[in-house]
Amino acid sequence: MTPVSAREVKELLRRHGVIAKKGYGQNFLVDGRVLEIIVRAVAPDAHTVVLEVGPGLGALTSALAERAKRVVAIEKDASLRPVLDEVLSRHGNVEIVYEDCLKVDLRALMAPRMAQGERLVFAANLPYYVTTPILFQVLESELPVSRAVVMVQREVADRMVAEPGGKDYGVLSVGVQYRGRVRRVANVPPSAFLPQPGVESAVVEIDCEMRPAVRAADEAVLFRVVRAAFGTRRKTLENALAAGLGEPKEAVRHKVTAAGIDPGTRAERLSLADFVRLADEFAQ
Ligand code: SAM
């Protein structure tokens, strides 16, 4: 049985004597339509390997395993093992790794689990207390992820899809948009989960195959520059960069101007291409 309704999830928890752990961000999906929306965005087929973080009670894992070649899922809460064993018993193509995903070397985990010609998709209903660290761990892992489909808090989704000029545009927007085309797939109400979270959620897709053409000479420099630029929002770009990077204002102004950017503008006005040009000046 795949637990996709509140009644089924309650029954499963009761039978196994499991209580949802708030500290692990355990809000289980109990809406089959939302599950289907995630599965459709992942678009698993016989060549797809899915890396999932936080399988929980296995509802999404099971739905993905129906259509994917293989699902490798990392779950921090080992006390869910009996539940996952039961829910996933009919799938021979699922492997659960009971670890804190932030402590796992994802490349070392996935390399022996993937073959030539397979497509890797990251899918997760993320625990909200560690959304950004997990997302960046995956996006920076050098895994050949072709797409990431994640459930996040709605305000995190707003920041992920934000465009220059808006109040939500910041480090997270540039960070994810640098790695792929970002799209909000759906907004999701608290009623889709058990227990219900105190916030709205959204499913976001990052299509890494539709990555923008711009590339920074040194990505570490790019993200240092982006973090410094947004570090003090009310400052002009040159003041924010000088403060954040600890460089003299004159030198900063020279580099900003050389990148074809007005030193008096603000970080939220810069496009991804502007940030890349700017970072390339600082990388020299
Ligand atoms: N995928 C399930 C669903 O959609 O119903 C559960 C999602 S629940 C929001 C988040 C899951 O992530 C929980 O099962 C929780 O135990 C797990 N989790 C929390 N922190 C984790 C970490 N650092 N590494 C791996 N799993 C984690």
TrEMBL record:
Reaction equations catalysed: adenosine(1518)/adenosine(1519) in 16S rRNA + 4 S-adenosyl-L-methionine = N(6)-dimethyladenosine(1518)/N(6)-dimethyladenosine(1519) in 16S rRNA + 4 S-adenosyl-L-homocysteine + 4 H(+)
Enzyme Commission number, as recorded: 2.1.1.182
Domain of life: Bacteria
Gene: rsmA
Major subcellular location class: cytoplasm
Binding of S-adenosyl-L-methionine, residues: N27, L29, G54, E75, D100, N125
Protein name: Ribosomal RNA small subunit methyltransferase A
Residues covered by the Ribosomal RNA adenine methylase transferase N-terminal domain: 34-210
Annotated family: Belongs to the class I-like SAM-binding methyltransferase superfamily. rRNA adenine N(6)-methyltransferase family. RsmA subfamily.
